[in-house]
Amino acid sequence: MSEGKEDKPVLSRIFREYKEFFTRMMESGDEDRIRFAMVFYDWINDSMEEASDAGEKAFMFRSIFAMAKRLLDSKLDKERLAKISEIVSNLRTRYENKDALFTAEYLKLQLFEDCGLDSEETDWEMVDKYLEQWAEASKKEELEITFYKRG
Q1: Contact 137, 144 (CB under 8 A)
Q2: Residue 125, exposed/middle/buried by CB under 10 A (0-12, 13-18, 19+)?
Q3: In degrees, to the nearest 5, what angle opens at C-alpha 144 toward C-alphas 141 and 146?
Q4: CA dist., res. 36 & res. 49, Å (int)
Q5: Integer Cα distance of 33 and 76 in angstroms
Q6: In terms of Cα–Cα distance, which of 145, 40, 38 is closest to 92?
Q7: DSSP 8-state class, residue 143
Q8: How would you class 139 by CB atoms within 10 Å of its CB: exposed for 0-12, middle for 13-18, buried for 19 or more?
Q9: Whose CA is closest to 65, among 16, 112, 103?
Q10: 35 Cβ neighbours under 8 A, 6+ residues apart
Q11: From 104's CA, which of 12, 110, 141, 146 has a CA 20 to 30 Å away?
Q12: How far is residue 60's CA from residue 72's CA, in Å, rounded to a whole number?
């Protein structure tokens, strides 16, 4: 089986899940979450144009989509989602899409692992500390991030 034929089922499954998720998001009528989703939608589209092959497209698509879905399904409010949108936009302005993705993924890990974003005991003060720090750092040419909590 050729490489192109093997990639199509993988991409088809991802596209189907993506379509269902964004359709649900649009039908929700929640303008803040829709606005947030559109930042990631644009990022996915740009990445698809820049990717050199189907494997890279699948990686970028799956990674960006998974990040958007996890953040949108979390307990983040509209102000925090707006802050993350700002950070992602800044990262995309300064770095190539793949580098911006790895950096944004790092922020997501800090929010979920360090701050317990998906737990019952989310440390909202720490979430805000990270978001403020990332917002400032993402405006600079070189990213410097502090750890507030690591075991």
Answers
A1: yes
A2: exposed
A3: 160
A4: 21
A5: 10
A6: 40
A7: -
A8: middle
A9: 16
A10: 81, 82, 85
A11: 12
A12: 18
- Answer yes or no: is pLDDT of 7 > 70: no
89 close to 139: Cβ distance less than 8 angstroms: no
CB atoms within 10 A of CB 30: 14
* Neighbour count for residue 127 (Cβ, 10 Å): 22
110 DSSP assignment:
I
Residue with tokens 């399904």: 73
Residue 6's identity, in one-letter code, is E
Q: Any idea which residue has 């770095």 for tokens?
A: 95
